[in-house]
Amino acid sequence: MPLELYNTLTRGQEPLTPADPAHVTFYTCGPTVYDDAHIGNFRSFLAADLLRRFLESPLCTLSDASGAPHTGPRAVTHVMNITDVGHMTDDDDADGGGEDKMEAASKRLAEQQAAAGGQPSAKKHESKKSGTAHASLGSIDPRDPRQIAAFYAERFVEDARRLGLKVAIESEADPTVMPRASERIDQMKAMIESLAERGYAYRAGDAVYFDVQRFPSYGALSGNSLDALKGGAGGRVSDEHQSEKHHPADFLLWKSDPSHLMKWPGPKINGEQMPEGYPGWHIECSAMARERLGDELDLHSGGEDNIFPHHECERAQSCCTTGSDTFARHWFHPRFLMVEGEKMSKSKGNFFTARDLFDKGHEPAAVRLELLKTHYRANANFTEQGLKDGARVIERWRQFIARTDAKADPATTADARRTAQAGFVRAMEDDLNVAGALGSINSFITAVPTPSEQDASLLRNFDAVLGLLELERPAAEETSIGLFAAGLDPDPRVIELLELRRDARKSKDFAAADAIRNELTALGFAIKDAPGGKVEVSRA
User: Fold this and answer.
1) Beta strand 69-70 with 62-63: parallel, antiparallel or unpaired?
2) Which parts of 78-225 fold into alpha helices (H)?
3) Are 249 and 226 in contact (CB under 8 A)?
4) Which residues face 38 on adjacent strands?
5) Inter-CA distances, 32 with 85, 175, 181, 311, Å
6) Cys-Cys crosslink for 433: which of 164, 369, 387, 427, Cβ 3.0 to 4.6 Å?
7) 3-class SS at 103?
8) Model-level pTM?
9) 348-382 pLDDT, tens per residue?
């Protein structure tokens, strides 16, 4: 069947029907670069990457406007912004409440540099409020928000590429697929001026607001109503600004503030020049999406916390700017990430950035798999054990390809390939049921003890969607990768015992290491320690 996805706007699973099934346009709300992205951020970004990869795969079928299936070649233009313009720490406040995120970062980094004596710290120092100090902090001026943004933007792109985010990889050759908000201020002002000319925006004091009452379907994406918002639902009403607004839910397009760290000449509202200031958060994404993808998008994604107010406001101002009935045909929102069964929190010690996990020795493929393996519309539980289990699954796939025998007869495994492909496609076309897709892959590997070149090729086709085997591999002595050079494919318990033995030897607990060796011998494996910390394993 053609791919079906849950659409937040319609609140139901439905076929994804692009305007042109041979070319899908896709916009993802990216990070605000005032700190390193945490794994909850990356869960949303990687879910979008998984969808993009499946759309590009020849395994994916889409519906055209008539409902007919389309299986031909397909291109995906995927854009993900980087917000390097400070907006407020309270993103739910339409009036720009809270502290500017770049100003907060400036204070945090200055404190961390001072704590390190003005020099890069040799030891990570975590702020009580947020963020982590970094070895290269001494190279940036914490008083300059543009340096802060550039510093964290570079780190984000590095992390994203290590995790296989295709849009980040592509941005090296084509920077327009990861536009910077600070470089699109003129486009934002043009949209604001157009909205004001058409009666959808108005000036009130030092600010420009969007008039939500002029857009009848405001609230359709999030399920809010103007009556509820008038009463203050969603924490969007600020008493300080209500007297100047037409409706309490009217949201900020521009704020004139000469004291703001990041500021630009203001737009002209009905011919009157606004003083210098900064754009509202919502207008940034509308301008960047429109510049690269046009007035109507096929897909728009972001974390579920973006649904309201951010995406609701994006949709309203974009439709009113272009006159189109739709801004995005399909809205894709992954849910939140839990860590070890709890909400991520620095105080609980379960708050991780991607870099934290890399520094702990977890390979990027294991991190990616742990973030993708749970259905995107379910709250995922990220665990240390899940990372270890994922590393073993990935190693098993690597060993399957390593065992490829050019002399193996592909006819003997043809049924297994057909079953695996049908199961994988059926699962992925059912709202990206990645757990079902993984189950099909693992059943296939179990069913094929000696893979032919066609078997290995099918696994690579599956992995082109999942994006795991292409990622960097850790050193052999640090993982199970060097343990089975003889082509063995033991169950996960054997791999776990070998890793426990390795850890015991590293900690010089040789009694425990010998006990594990005896257990492995009882399971039928002969163990020989080799130079360089490697282990040779064979059947006893």
Assistant:
1) antiparallel
2) 101-115, 145-162, 166-170, 185-197
3) yes
4) 353
5) 8, 17, 10, 15
6) 427
7) helix
8) 0.84
9) 888 999 999 999 989 999 999 999 999 999 999 99
